[in-house]
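Today's session is about reading a structure prediction critically. Students often jump straight to the picture, but the first step is always the sequence itself: look for stretches that repeat, for charged clusters, for runs of hydrophobic residues. Only then move on to the predicted structure, which in these notes is written as discrete structure tokens rather than atom positions. Here is the chain we will use throughout the hour.
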Amino acid sequence: MRPLVLASTSRYRAALLDRLGIPYAVDAPGVDEAARPGESPAAACVRLAEAKARAVGGRHPGALVLGSDQIADCDGAHVGKPGTLERARAQLASLPATP
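Below is the predicted structure for this chain, in token form.
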């Protein structure tokens, strides 16, 4: 059986794999996650997941490599991780209200 490698250091993604009860390794992809000008959140998400898998796959030939990403999208705009409570409040306040 080919080894499974998670191309992420996310504890949440690792927890999902842990629930499956299958062995896997973790390798940090080291990919620049900056959005590109004009790139939609969906396109960025796919690009980053693939870049992570390719980066880690190059170090683990023959392994099954799982690369993933998630990006919050509000009406086509990328909503990044705020990092602090203050920025989270500002970010939420700037989002359009829905009926």
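Discussion point for the tutorial: The radius of gyration is 16 Å.
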